[in-house]
């Protein structure tokens, strides 16, 4: 692999609540805890995990919408962890974000033409006439019609709104797009259209994606590699086919067994792993391996020692004392 | 083809009108709000015409006492201040109201001045003070609320502390203390020199005391908007703060200020009346509805119209302002659909 486009090292995001005067004392919520990964140019890394595991927090730290508590983010060869002002603005041109909720991510008071033109105006990418043309061509790229340009967001369906959000993210011709659950708020029929659109854009423009999702079916369609997150940490990271076909971490296995299978014959063969209990609170994580209270394979060592993210013989990484190979 | 399922019937409809155009359409269909608005406009026009009324109909100067004047009533000349009807014939009894358009329609006050003419002149001051104070209040509240909510941190702490300090006083205690001190001495600080009788004093005092009541909700609104995904998206684009404030924050704040505006004008009008009634608002010889009520206080048993007329004017104006405020709230709520 050539030099990575994005290199995240030991990234943490901790929230501290309560102080010296609080009865419960200080509690630290480790929303993201010591996460490292890389994304190569043009590559799509799928980031999966259940709700509340820190996926979105991680995405927002990478795009600098949240300040990381620790660790390092390198983008396009530059350390952007503490960038500010003009340098950060330039970084942002290459590092855009698509949001989960297409209803909340567009200002209801602005026409979509102005919403899509905003990044071009902010970065001074041309005169007003040129920007008009660029917006029209972006609209065509995401499959919207030019006569819809003067409408307000509420006049669009969810899928169309998400296309507007994608057009805005594409406007500055970024190298990496962090897509935070871009389809989970949409109808299933529309989800496929948006995923296809993103896959087309990825091929046509050589875009890299950090694609955050909780739906493995969606990730399967678009990701080159997959990272599985549990309680703020990555528990498995490897090529998409390998991770999805033969998951090594018990948590990944449980996630994959939860994906519905369309073929009833195959569905009968399938063994469903149902996890007991809820994910533990990130403010009070269990000792040792954070997954051990819900794991069917846990032994003595799992309750005392946290397993490191270590390579398996086939090259993928997993954080488990007893990987299933 | 892949888009076929996304086509909706309104794809062929013309683009929707803007936010304010929609709100205006909704407001125009709201009978109560339009009645209130018409009432307010009539009151404002009447008060604006005060000099015309005084010159051409009442033929009087409402700021000069007329202790020994006479006026034609039912075909004979009557004294404006007649002898009182009590058994001891002590004091005077001002002339009463009449149904005929002309001098002393609403009777005279204790100094023989035309109450109707004073009502119109007083209305000018009441309206001027309450509208100007509301503008001061809304501008200051928008500024402080937006800065505190958007920038957070120390900016927020400093502004919130100031607002809390202001809020800690009961409104009327603060208004009365400020007015007593300032109206006794006027203001003379460097370039700012205000006469004790200047209208700017009550305007500023009434404007400032209600700032926390508007700034707080504005701050809360901005705090919420600051976390909204479309503001995050604007930050992610690299948009400078002023663009985010201008395009994403201010339009939302303005629509809630528009809803607040008539309510604040109404509050200001009541406060002005209260201060003027206590002689610490609008200063004589100028009049306001509050000072006329004050003049009418001593005549309450003989000529109650002197106190009731300005009282009714305040009630009608404040009621109209509140109904208009409700109508604006409904019209500006994007969730309330336009009914056909």
From TrEMBL, chain A:
Single GO molecular function: ATP binding
Subcellular location: Cell inner membrane
Membrane-protein topology: Peripheral membrane protein
Keyword Zinc-finger (UniProt): no
UniProt xrefs under SMART domains: AAA
InterPro entries: AAA+_ATPase, ABC_transp_ATP-bind, ABC_transporter-like_ATP-bd, ABC_transporter-like_CS, Oligopep_ABC_C, P-loop_NTPase
SUPFAM superfamilies linked: P-loop containing nucleoside triphosphate hydrolases (SSF52540)
Keyword Nucleotide-binding attributed: yes
Keyword set, alphabetical order: ATP-binding, Nucleotide-binding, Transport
Domain ABC transporter, first and last residues per copy: 6-256
PANTHER family: D,D-DIPEPTIDE TRANSPORT ATP-BINDING PROTEIN DDPF-RELATED, TRANSPORT ATP-BINDING PROTEIN
Family according to the record: Belongs to the ABC transporter superfamily.
NCBIfam families, per the entry: oligo_HPY (TIGR01727)
Name of the protein: ATP-binding cassette domain-containing protein
Organism, as annotated: Acidiphilium iwatense
UniProtKB/TrEMBL annotation, chain B:
Cellular compartment(s): Cell membrane
Domain ABC transmembrane type-1: residue ranges: 123-325
Keyword Isomerase on entry: no
Taxonomic superkingdom: Bacteria
Name of the protein: ABC transporter permease
Species annotation: Acidiphilium iwatense
Transmembrane segments: 32-54, 127-154, 166-187, 199-218, 300-325
Membrane topology recorded in Swiss-Prot or TrEMBL: Multi-pass membrane protein
Homology family: Belongs to the binding-protein-dependent transport system permease family.
């Amino acid at each position: 692999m050539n030099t990575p486009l994005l290199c995240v090292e030991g990234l943490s995001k901790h929230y501290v609540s309560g102080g010296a005067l609080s009865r419960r004392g200080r509690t630290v919520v480790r929303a993201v805890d010591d996460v490292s990964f890389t994304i190569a140019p043009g590559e799509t890394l799928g980031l999966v995990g259940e709700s509340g595991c820190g996926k979105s927090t991680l995405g927002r730290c990478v795009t600098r919408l949240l300040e990381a508590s620790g660790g390092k983010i390198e983008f396009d060869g530059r350390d952007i962890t503490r960038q500010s002002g003009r340098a950060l603005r330039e970084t942002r041109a290459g590092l855009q974000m698509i949001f989960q909720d297409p209803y909340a991510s567009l200002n209801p008071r602005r026409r979509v033409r102005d919403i899509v033109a905003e990044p071009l105006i902010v970065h001074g990418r041309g005169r007003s006439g040129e920007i008009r043309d660029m917006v029209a061509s972006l609209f065509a790229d995401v499959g919207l019609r030019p006569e819809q340009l003067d409408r307000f967001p509420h006049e669009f369906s969810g899928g169309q709104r998400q296309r507007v959000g994608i057009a805005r993210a594409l406007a500055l011709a970024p190298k990496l797009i962090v897509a935070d659950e871009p389809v989970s708020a949409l109808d299933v029929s529309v989800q496929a259209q948006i995923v296809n659109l993103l896959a087309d854009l990825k091929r046509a423009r050589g875009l890299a994606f950090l694609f955050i999702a909780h739906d493995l079916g969606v990730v399967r369609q678009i990701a080159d590699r997959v990272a599985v997150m549990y309680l703020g940490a990555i528990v498995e990271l490897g090529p998409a086919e390998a991770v999805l076909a033969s998951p090594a971490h018990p948590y990944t296995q449980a996630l994959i067994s939860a994906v519905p299978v369309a073929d009833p014959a195959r569905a009968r063969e399938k063994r469903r792993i149902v996890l007991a209990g809820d994910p533990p609170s990130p403010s009070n994580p269990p000792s040792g391996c954070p997954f051990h209270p819900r794991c069917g394979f846990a032994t003595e060592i799992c309750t005392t020692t946290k397993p490191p993210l270590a390579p398996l013989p086939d090259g993928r990484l997993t954080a488990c004392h007893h990987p299933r190979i | 083809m892949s888009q076929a399922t996304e086509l909706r019937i309104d794809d062929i409809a013309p683009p929707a009108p803007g936010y304010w155009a929609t709100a205006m359409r909704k407001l125009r269909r709201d009978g109560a709000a339009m009645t209130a608005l018409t009432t307010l406009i009539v009151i404002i026009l009447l008060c604006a015409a005060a000099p015309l009324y005084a010159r051409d109909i009442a033929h009087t100067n409402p700021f000069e006492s007329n202790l020994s004047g006479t006026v034609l009533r039912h075909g004979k000349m009557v004294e404006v201040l007649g002898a009182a009807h009590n058994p001891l014939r002590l004091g005077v009894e001002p002339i009463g109201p009449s149904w005929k358009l002309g001098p002393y329609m609403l009777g005279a006050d204790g100094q023989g001045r035309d109450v109707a003419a004073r009502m119109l002149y007083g209305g000018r001051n009441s309206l001027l003070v309450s509208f100007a104070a509301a503008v001061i209040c809304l501008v200051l509240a928008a500024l402080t609320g937006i800065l505190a909510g958007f920038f957070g941190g120390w900016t927020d702490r400093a502004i919130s502390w100031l607002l809390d300090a202001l809020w800690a006083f009961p409104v009327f205690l603060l208004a009365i203390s400020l007015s007593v001190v300032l109206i006794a001495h006027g203001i003379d600080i460097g370039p700012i020199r205000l006469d004790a009788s200047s209208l700017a004093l009550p305007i500023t005092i009434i404007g400032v005391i209600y700032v926390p009541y508007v700034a707080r909700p504005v701050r809360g609104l901005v705090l919420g908007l600051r976390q909204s995904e479309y503001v995050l998206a604007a930050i992610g684009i690299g948009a400078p703060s002023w663009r985010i404030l201008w395009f994403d924050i201010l339009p939302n704040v303005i629509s809630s200020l528009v809803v607040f505006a008539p309510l604040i004008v109404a509050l200001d009008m009541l406060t002005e009346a209260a201060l003027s009634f206590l002689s610490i608002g609008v200063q004589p010889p100028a009049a306001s509805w509050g000072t006329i009520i004050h003049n009418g206080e001593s005549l309450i048993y003989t000529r109650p119209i002197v106190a009731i007329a300005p009282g009714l004017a305040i009630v009608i104006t404040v009621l109209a302002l509140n109904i208009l405020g409700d109508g604006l709230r409904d019209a500006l709520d994007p969730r309330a659909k336009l009914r056909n």
